[in-house]
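Notes from the 1:1 (GR / supervisor)

We went over the backlog. Supervisor wanted to see one worked example end to end before approving the batch request, so GR pasted a single chain during the call. The sequence is below; no edits were made to it. Supervisor asked that the structure be written out right there so they could see what the output format looks like.
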Amino acid sequence: MQAELFILRLSRNSGVLGLAGMAFTYQTFSSSMHFYDEDSKNDGILLVRPLLHFSKEDMYKVCKVGGQDWVEDPTNQSLLYARNRIRMSLRSLSSYTFKSELQAVISACRKTRAFVDQFCTKLMNQAVTIVHHGYAIIDLEILNPSKMADLCLTKFMTLVLQFISQRQRPVRGSTSKLLLEYIRTFPCKTSLTAAGCYLCPATRSKGTKILVCCSVDCPFPSKMESTFIHSDAEKTRSMPCELEQIITDGKLYSDHFVPDASDVYFLDSTSESVLTEAKRLNIISDSTYRNILLLQKDEIEYFKARIEDDVECESKDEVENITTCSNEPLRPGQICYFMSRFIVRWSLSKNIPVIPIPEKSYCDWVLEGEGWHHHPWSCTLSHDMVVEVRHMIESDWLYLAKLLNHASLDNVHQQRICTACESEQSSVNRNLYLVYLRFSAERALKLLKSIPVAARRSLPVLVNHQGLLLSIPSIGFKNCPCLTVSCIFKPRVPLGGGHSSFMQFL
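Structure output shown during the call:
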C-alpha cells in the first residue's frame, strides 16, 4: 500500500513530506461543532491503521488461520484507478531487492518527516504567540528563518496559516515560494495575503514580528455554521482521558524514532531530486532507480489526461462555495460556530443587571403574562427575536466612535435606536439609553485599540435585521445591558494540525 502511494504521489510532484506515505495514526476534526462545552477539548477523531504495514498475503494468512471469510472488492482489478494500475505494475517488479530498496526510500522520507514535525512543534512553542481574538504573532528573531531549511520553514508556515485560516489545504507551488521570500525578509515592512491569511508587520515591532490573521475576503473561512445548544443529558460523551492516553503513547512511541539532523537525508531535496539523492547515497541501485522512473512516467501520462477535467471541477466547486456562503439567523438558545473558530451565543437576561453609570441603572423588566419585556428604548431586536452574525467591518468601529458624541449621530441612527420610545418618559429613556451606549462604546474602543486593525476584521459582530449593531462580544460592546453575549475563541483544529504518527518499520 505504501509503495503504491509513493509512486502515485511521486507522479503528482508531491514533496518529501507527502512521499512519507500514510500515517500509522492520524487525528481528524469535524468541520462543525455539534456539542458545546467550555471545558471540553476538541480531540477530534483518532484514526489508527494497525494493518498498514501488512501485505495482502499476510492478511490472507491471518484470515485463514482465524477461520474468517473475507470480501474481495471487484474494483481492485480495474485499471481505471491509479492505485490498481500501479499495484499491477509493481507485481512485475516483485524482486526482493526492488521491494527492500523502495521501502528504504520511503523510510528515509518518513525519518525526514518525523524530524521536520518535531522541529516545527518545538519552534511553534517558542516563536508563535496565539491571541484569543483569533490571530497569531510570529517572532522573526526567535524563528531566524534565514537559517532554516526550506522544507522546515514551509512546514512551519503551513501549520501556522492552517491554524489561523482553519483550512486544511496544503500550501504549495507559487504560494509556498512567495511565503518563503516574505518570511525571510528581515525586518518585515510589507504585507501579504496567502492561503486564507493576511500577514503584515506587527504593531510597534519595527518589522521583527509578523501578524498573521484570517483574511475575511477569502470565501471559505467566512462560512458560519449554527447549531442548537444541547443539555448535558443529551450529549454523547467520549472518553477524553483514554483518548489523551492513546495520543500521548503514540507521540512517545513516534518520538522514539525521530532521528538526529545528521541522519536526515532529504531536508534539501525536492520531489524531483529525492530519487537522485537516494541513488547518490546508495539507498537504491541503478536498476531500482530506473524502474521507479518508468513507473512514474507511466502514471504521469494518465495524470496529464485528467488535469483539464480536474481543474474545471475545482473552479466550479470554488464558485459554489462563494455563492452559498451567507449569514444565518441566530435565535436565543442557539450557538453559532463562526468562521470555525468563535463560539458565539446570546440571550436576553431575566436577571436585572444594575450598571453604576452616573448612579443610574439602565434596564427594568416587567412580567406580563408569559413573556418578559424591557424598556422600549432597548427594543432593537426584531419581533422574531433573531440576530445575524457577520465579521466586523470598518463602519462598525466608526459607529462606536460616533456614539461617544451624541450630536454626531445622524437622525436615522437616533430614530432606529429610539423608535420604540412612545411613553411620557420617552425622552428620559432616550437619554438614559444614549448615556449607556456612550459608556459601552468608550469601554469597547479602549479594548479595540489593543487589537491590530487587520485582526479586527475577523471578529464576530451581532446585528439585527435592519443592520443595526447589537454587539461586538470580543470587546464587550452591547447596545443593551440586558443583552447577554459571549464569544469564545475555540478553533476546531489545534495549532500543529493535530496528532499524527509516522512509525518506522525498517
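Supervisor's comment: Residues 25 and 48 are 5 Å apart (CA to CA).
Batch request approved.
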